[in-house]
Amino acid sequence: MGVSYLYCKGCNESHHSDYFRGCDECESHDTCDTCDSSFNLFTKGERIEKICTTCLTNYEMIREKYILPYLSEANEIADEKARFEQILERKSSVEYKKYRFRIENEKLSDILRDLEEQCKIMQQLNLFK
């Protein structure tokens, strides 16, 4: 088994294949690690992918794989933030405070009514003297 050497278009020299980086899209070995000039780096999730200049000219592929997912995620985050701000705004409004007061008042009234009924039952059973 022979050692493979690849020609680097960047520095015009041959290097061992272990020192070459390929495009994550077309897997071509264009440049070595030392003159990594023909690669463009993109983040995809938590990974950084290297895209060669030839593949970079395919704008639709770049747009679909690297730009659109982040735009939709950013839009979702912005929508969620806007909904949260609306909730905070609504909760600080006078109408909302009146609404919450009415609900709490109704809960307390229900509890009081239940206690009164229990007292009446206990009186009827002569448990309360």
Brief characterization of the structure:
With 129 residues, the chain is α+β, with helices and mostly antiparallel strands. The protein has helices at residues 53-56, 59-91, 94-124, and strands at residues 5-8, 13-16, 20-22, 29-32, 39-44, 47-52.
Question: In words, what does this structure look like?
Answer:
This protein has 129 residues and is α+β, with helices and mostly antiparallel strands. It folds into 2 domains: 5-92, no CATH class; 93-129. 53% of the residues lie in helices and 21% in strands. It has 3 helices and 6 strands. The strands form 3 sheets. A two-stranded antiparallel ribbon has the order 1-2. The chain has a two-stranded antiparallel sheet with strand order 3-4. It has a two-stranded antiparallel sheet with strand order 5-6. Strand 3 (20-22) and strand 4 (29-32) form a beta hairpin. The protein is rod-shaped. The mean pLDDT is 71.
Helix-strand blueprint:
Blueprint (H helix, E strand, L loop, with lengths): L4 E4 L4 E4 L3 E3 L6 E4 L6 E6 L2 E6 H4 L2 H33 L2 H31 L5
Antiparallel strand pairs: 1-2, 3-4, 5-6
